[in-house]
């Protein structure tokens, strides 16, 4: 898909999307990340039929984003929310429900407001709401009618950490319900916690796309620290490789290259799943070793993003 914004009264234009190709599997929690100006909002607006691609096609929920029946199954929280300041939230939600072709049901709307943590604010005018409260109201509007697809552009913008936790809980509930979640957030920790797939967009193109496990977490390698006194030979026989040891010296895991400064009691082990990991730990414990710390090796999403788009100076 391509999108060029044409300049008024001028020639040429700005290519916001330059051949973007992306499939979001149904039922996934999909995160779109990338630097400012990458084209994320343009892509979201194309998916929603708000912006028409210059070239290419968008299919959403098996149909066209311009089909009202398809649009009715999408919940959208825009990046910039425009809310009627003199209204109260139940009236606002009732109007959004009507616009979505739903019959507003007052107790249902109050339950929804309670779900997003706004039950104490139903009698106040929206104009007096904080940024976080406005975002929560926007989320409630997006959730109206139990959409099959939730498209959220910076949903936790302006929300405090406790509020973010609440929003995350709601999004996780929705994903468990079978909703497809499409999230654009500059808070990478947010994307990491909520999403199972991620695409990195830069300069109008998808640079990387895949399961978060595969992109970010390095998957199979674990770093383990044992209490002083553990028998190194027994640990190596159990598959643990001391950090800093050249691979050739490793008996337990041939081919495993372990970089880093040698640190007493610190080892890595490759284990494809938790059963293999626990079997290795059982072998270590059987030799008398005591586990002190265990963490998965691998880059976080920030490192993956920087690796894909280069340094911030280059990426901007
Ligand atoms: N209506 C428009 N007219 C002209 N250019 C636009 C328009 N909307 C976006 N652009 C340009 O298209 C490019 C992509 O913008 P877009 O808002 O999609 O990026 P983004 O990844 O969402 O950025 P951010 O993270 O800053 O919100 C930018 O260079 C932007 O200036």
UniProtKB/TrEMBL annotation:
Membrane found in the keyword field: no
UniProt GO molecular function: ATP binding; ATP hydrolysis activity
Family matches, as SUPFAM superfamilies: P-loop containing nucleoside triphosphate hydrolases
Record-linked PROSITE patterns: ABC_TRANSPORTER_1 (PS00211), ABC_TRANSPORTER_2 (PS50893)
Family per similarity comment: Belongs to the ABC transporter superfamily.
UniProt keyword annotations, A-Z: ATP-binding, Nucleotide-binding, Transport
Phylogenetic classification of the source organism: Bacteria, Pseudomonadati, Myxococcota, Myxococcia, Myxococcales
ABC transporter domain sequence ranges: 2-228
Gene3D superfamilies to which the protein is assigned, alphabetical: P-loop containing nucleotide triphosphate hydrolases (3.40.50.300)
UniProt superkingdom: Bacteria
Signal peptide extent: none
Record-given protein name: ABC transporter ATP-binding protein
Record's keyword annotation contains Acyltransferase: no
């Amino acid at each position: 898909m391509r999108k060029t914004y044409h300049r008024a009264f001028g020639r040429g234009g700005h290519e916001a999307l330059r051949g973007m190709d992306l499939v979001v599997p149904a039922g996934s929690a999909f995160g779109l990340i990338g630097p400012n100006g990458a084209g994320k909002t343009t892509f979201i607006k194309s998916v929603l039929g708000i912006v028409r691609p210059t070239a290419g096609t968008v299919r959403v929920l098996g149909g066209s984003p311009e089909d009202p029946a398809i649009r009715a199954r999408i919940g959208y929280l825009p990046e910039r929310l425009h809310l009627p300041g003199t209204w109260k939230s139940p009236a606002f939600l009732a109007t959004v429900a009507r616009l979505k072709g739903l019959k507003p049901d007052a107790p249902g709307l109050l339950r929804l407001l309670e779900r997003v943590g706004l039950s104490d604010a139903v009698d106040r005018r929206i104009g007096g709401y904080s940024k976080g409260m406005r975002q929560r109201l926007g989320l409630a509007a997006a959730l109206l009618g139990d959409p099959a697809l939730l498209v959220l552009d910076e949903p936790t913008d302006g929300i405090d950490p406790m509020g973010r936790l609440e929003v995350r809980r709601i999004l996780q509930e929705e994903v468990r319900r079978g909703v497809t979640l499409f999230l654009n957030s500059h808070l990478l920790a947010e994307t990491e916690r909520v999403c199972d797939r991620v695409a990195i967009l830069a300069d109008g193109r998808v640079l990387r796309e895949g399961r978060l496990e595969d992109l970010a977490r390095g998957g199979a390698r674990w770093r383990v620290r044992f209490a002083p006194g553990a028998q190194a030979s027994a640990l190596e026989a159990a598959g643990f490789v001391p950090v800093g040891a050249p691979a050739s010296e490793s008996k337990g895991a041939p081919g495993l290259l372990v970089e880093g400064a040698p640190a007493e009691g610190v080892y890595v082990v490759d284990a494809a799943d938790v059963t293999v990991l626990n079997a290795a730990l059982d072998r270590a414990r059987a030799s008398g070793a005591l586990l002190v710390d265990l963490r998965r090796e691998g880059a976080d999403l920030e490192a993956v993003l920087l690796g894909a788009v280069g340094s911030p100076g280059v990426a901007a």
